[in-house]
Amino acid sequence: MEIAKKFKNIDVVKGDDKKQLGLVSAISVGIGLVVATSVLVSLAQGVGIAGKGFVIAMVIACILNMLTAFSFSELNSLMPVTGGLAQYTLPAFGPLVGMVAVLGGYVICTFFAGSSEAAMIGIVFTSTFMPSVNPSIVSIVFVLILMIANLFEVKNYARIQIVTTSAMIISMMLFGIIGAMGIGTGEMVVQETVAFNPMGMGVLSLVSLAFWLFVGIEYVTPLSKELKDPDKTVPLGMILGLIIVLVVQVAMVYGIYKYVPMGALLDSSLPHMLYASSLLGKVGTYWMAAISIFAVVSTLNTILGSVSRMIYGMAKDGMLPKIFTKTNKYDIPYVAVVLIGVVFIITLSTGISTAEQLVLYILTGAVFWMVAYIVAHLDVLVLRKKYPNHKRGFQIKLFGLPQIIGILGMIYMIVNVSPDPEMKVQILKSVGVWFVILTVYGVIWIKKVMKKNLFETVSIEEVLEMDKSN
After folding, report:
1. Which residues contact 427 (CB under 8 A, 6 or more apart)?
2. Which of these CATH numbers, 1.20.1740.10, 3.30.70.2390, 3.30.420.40, 1.10.10.60, describes 31-468?
3. Which residues are listed as membrane-spanning (predicted)?
4. Which residues touch 454 (CB under 8 Å, ≥6 apart)?
5. pLDDT digits (tens, 9 = 90+) for 166-211
6. pTM of the entire predicted model
7. Conformation bin of residue 43: beta by default, left when phi > 0, alpha when psi is -120 to 50
């Protein structure tokens, strides 16, 4: 098999002492963002709506994200740069498209969704272990610890990621196995419907919900310069990460279905905690609280480590202020790391991260995330035409079908981003507003600061050279 050859001798590394991270780190980084607290909630809600049939939507969503992983892997092998999508897009469409896609789908989405995740660690921790403590204080302490850890050697980032991700995934798998086998201490329930897929074809409307269970696996790519043998480690890390997440979450689906009535899952604001208490009582509550905390720590650690490098890479290519190119003695883009941490702390201090309006901002950023994936697929197709003979360490052609199917899948999910028509209109209006704001910023910055045309492309060699420069 051609794919198998690409992954042969994955553990063989030659030379470069700066390559500090291996396959386990790559998998941990990918899973670290994919499995967030909101994912645990969405998973349980999906079971509440479709029962075991939610697995169908999950498999489809996982496949779509694997197609995205293929595109990001090929782009990374063409241009192993720190800025990710923004830099990949320069040779294909010029600066404007990449700036809007990355600032919307990653930076803005990160600021709001990341702040919400940070707020959750305080809420879960205090409600379970220390009810008399202010949740915001706990959240801020966690953010500060992670921000400081990310200012030192990249190994610290990897150590935190491996520990938290391993504990989280093993615990989730045990929760799934205990529930699926029916060996919990709680009582199993009899659902009103015993059909595997009571929604029939209607389950396809839940692919958008299932998408959130796998999104973010490409956060591995900004770390490619620190990874051993990145042409193999990046794609293998992403694909294995998605498979691991799918297997664990399918086990959770069967466990949740056996122990919690579907209606109760929909009525609960924390359905994953309801499952934990129904399965193992007080022990389950404490255990799931720990999983939730690990999920938040892992997510925030991934954001601080990867998004900071995206900002750094964009600044090196002139798409953001040069101050973000500053690095410390550990070669960490400390200005970007501190910026992200400060934004989290400000939102936690002001309370905006718990406001109802924040849900709209998160979903708006998520639509931009889908748009970013569409741009990645288009980049691959365009660059294959422009640079057919350029060396690629990873490529799965298949006549461009992975990219075409991926684009159509993203469009479908954008159109079906919310089953509530009123909420859908709100989201799309918000996307329009953010699109205008980012486009205006991009046009002004490109024309006045970069002094380039909006769609002026550069060669792959120029992108690589800019990324090397300090």
Report:
1. 360, 363, 364, 367, 417, 418
2. 1.20.1740.10
3. 21-43, 49-72, 93-113, 133-152, 164-183, 195-215, 236-257, 286-312, 332-352, 358-382, 394-415, 427-446
4. 94, 95, 96, 442, 443, 446, 447
5. 788 888 889 999 999 999 999 999 888 778 898 888 888 888 888 8
6. 0.82
7. alpha
Kindly tell me the burial class for residue 433, based on how many C-beta atoms sit within 10 Å of its own C-beta (0-12, 13-18, 19 or more). Answer: exposed
Q: Are 222 and 313 in contact (CB under 8 A)?
A: yes
Q: Which residues have C-beta within 8 Å of that of residue 162, sequence separation ≥ 6?
A: 24, 25, 28
Instruction: Give me the numbers of helices (H) and strands (E) for the chain, helices first please.
Output: 18, 0
Contacts of 258 (CB under 8 A, 6+ apart): 179, 180, 182, 188, 189
Question: Does pLDDT of 272 surpass 90?
Answer: no
More confident residue, 16 or 227: 227
Q: Which residues neighbour 334 within 8 Å (Cβ) at sequence distance 6 or greater?
A: 151, 326, 327, 328
pLDDT above 70 covers a percentage of the chain that reads 87
Residues in the chain: 470
Task: List the alpha helices (DSSP H) in 260-356.
Answer: 262-267, 271-316, 334-350
> Residues 33, 295: contact at Cβ < 8 Å?
no
Burial class (CB in 10 A: 0-12, 13-18, 19+), 268: middle
With a cut of 50, say whether residue 3 has pLDDT above it. no
Give mean pLDDT, residues 28-54.
82
Residue 452 in tokens: 């380039």
Residues 345-378, buried b or exposed e (16+ Cβ, 10 A)?
Answer: bebbeeebbbeeebebbbbbbbbbbbbbbbbbbb
pLDDT, tens digit (0-9, with 9 covering 90-100), for 439-461: 999 999 999 998 889 998 888 88
Residue-level pLDDT at 406? 96
